[in-house]
Amino acid sequence: MKPKTKVSDVAHRARVSVATVSRTFNTPAAVRENVRKRVIAVAQSLGYSPNPAAKALRMQRTNIVGAVVPTLDYAIYAQMLNSFQTALSASGYMVFVLTVGFDNTHLYEPVRLLVDRGAEALLIVGRIEDDRARTFLAERRIPTVTTYSYQADDPIPSIGFDNYAATRQLADYLVRLGHRHMVMISGPTRGNDRQQSRIRAFREAAAEAGIAKTAQVIERTYSLREGAAVMRSIHADFPATTAVMCNSDVFAFGVLSECKNLRLHVPEDLTVTGFDNQDFAGLLDPPLTTIAVPATEMGARSAEALLNAVKTRQRIASARLETNLIVRSSTASPPSR
Amino acid sequence: MKPKTKVSDVAHRARVSVATVSRTFNTPAAVRENVRKRVIAVAQSLGYSPNPAAKALRMQRTNIVGAVVPTLDYAIYAQMLNSFQTALSASGYMVFVLTVGFDNTHLYEPVRLLVDRGAEALLIVGRIEDDRARTFLAERRIPTVTTYSYQADDPIPSIGFDNYAATRQLADYLVRLGHRHMVMISGPTRGNDRQQSRIRAFREAAAEAGIAKTAQVIERTYSLREGAAVMRSIHADFPATTAVMCNSDVFAFGVLSECKNLRLHVPEDLTVTGFDNQDFAGLLDPPLTTIAVPATEMGARSAEALLNAVKTRQRIASARLETNLIVRSSTASPPSR
DNA sequence: CTGAAAGCGCTTACAG
DNA sequence: CTGAAAGCGCTTACAG
């Protein structure tokens, strides 16, 4: 086994001190050119790279950031993380990923773990619903950004979109089309501000339209299968339903597929909408009306913000990103019943 | 800002030496009970946790493993990584993820980066096609496992499935159904042993059936859009085609959707198959014949193998996992033409 | 059972 | 421009 080479090996072979080797890489201008070249050549031939632990200990900087995501097994988070990670790597940072599920009320442990293991900054999906985590982050001054939901008033900066507004826009649109019996299929709501905002938007839109009593919310875990199963119960329990708002394209996919089994025509018999505008949304049959979400942008902008905060120690500015209501043929005004 | 507490802070407050504090956590049996309790109480109240860099430097262990994946923006890798990461976290390891695309001929840089940044072991998707990376890994004795493709003969252990066999099984099945004009849509092939094996399986099956001349392979990047686009060209350029084998369910999804536009009925006019058995496969219209791949199992078993290798320094045993041909209504014998 | 001390591999203020 | 030395925060062999 070839042991890892260290500064002293390079120094020895280049006939300089370890200080000079270190300077060659960290403050090259401070080293005479011919010496620098010799050191670089030796380092190269020995395959030298500084021990990250020693460097981190000495510099008090790890160049690691942590990402807390609900799961990777859901395209939209994976996509966000993909752009986040790519941006960070490009700047010499490594990323620790930790999946924690959808409930943000117990974020202290994962946040603590990430920081204890060296994360200098944190990306967290969704609002932090755990005061211990907030206190810890504040006391330790860990640059943190929350993504996926924009929170105007939160002391922790957020780079995301307005879940209430996006859902409200869609719900109002359905109301205008004349729907009076609507069902929302939501994802897990506990400790999940995104779902809570969407439900609130749905209920308020219904209330203002005077159809609150016929507005149902059904909560499920994200999966095609659940989407299909829920559609069966809607058909059985709320047959008057003319519009199903799915808080995920995944649900909508399952719903559409179950509609076929139930011989329900979309949109003639039922309007179905999704959320996220995943790439399959436009290829479903019929194409899905949904809300396009800036997943890649959230990842990239969060990375940029964190990078900047780590360098300048300045406060991160929140950013409210745009969503886009994409109307496709899965919506229409409801049949007269 | 509350500075991070260190051993010496705890030692001072507990009126013991730093050695005793350290022992309290690392070899508790070697500390008198009442002292130990006092130390733990103080550490707790101070929110102490050891500095990972100092610990890593001293122990020469980082408890970090690296994962090299093509992209997270593809469900099957995200799923594998999800189970990999979950298993590792449960054992106190952190994971660095690095996305590198599908071409494994330039793995030296990413492998080097991960190891230089402290990864003690590596998970790599696909065969390593870069000799510098192999040499580096061997010289430094970095426990490594390759996943997604099982390689009987490779010196680097692999925990995956036999891409040749899986594809061959499907191709032979289609041949038996009577297909004589088949097209395979493959993902990126450069530096990608999985695709190469699948293409070989397809070509050999065709050759043995005497239909090599009408067997086409079309290479594309993975996306629904590409799947749809390819279907258009197949329809235009190879109208005699009766079966399209997609090396990804994503392609197949696009192909099926384009078939609708082209007024092609599946499977009456055309047989379409996928690969991966993603959760949507059975909900497509018609349900997709595909190959189920053990994504979660690959992640979990690779994690286990790496964990074990890091602890025992023993050689990792390769494992050939099973795939499953799932026949659904998107296949049938071809129409007589 | 406990403490003083060495040392893991770096970087940088200090002196020359 | 260069080197000797201190020190980042741990763990553990050594001595008691």
What does this structure look like?
2 copies of one chain form a homodimer. Chain A is elongated. Chain A folds into 3 domains: 7-50, lambda repressor-like DNA-binding domains (434 Repressor (Amino-terminal Domain), Orthogonal Bundle); 64-162 and 295-322, 3-Layer(aba) Sandwich (Rossmann fold); 163-293, Response regulator (Rossmann fold), CATH 3.40.50. Chain A is α/β, with parallel strands linked by helices. The model of chain A has no long low-confidence stretch (mean pLDDT 95). The first copy, chain A, is built from 12 helices and 12 strands. Chain A starts with 6 loop residues before the first helix and ends in an 11-residue tail after the last strand. At the A-B interface, helix 4, helix 5, strand 2, helix 10 and helix 11 of A face helix 4, helix 5, strand 2, helix 10 and helix 11 of B. Chain A binds a DNA duplex (16 and 16 nucleotides) through residues 6-8, 16-20, 22-23, 26-27, 30-32, 35, 50-51, 53-60.
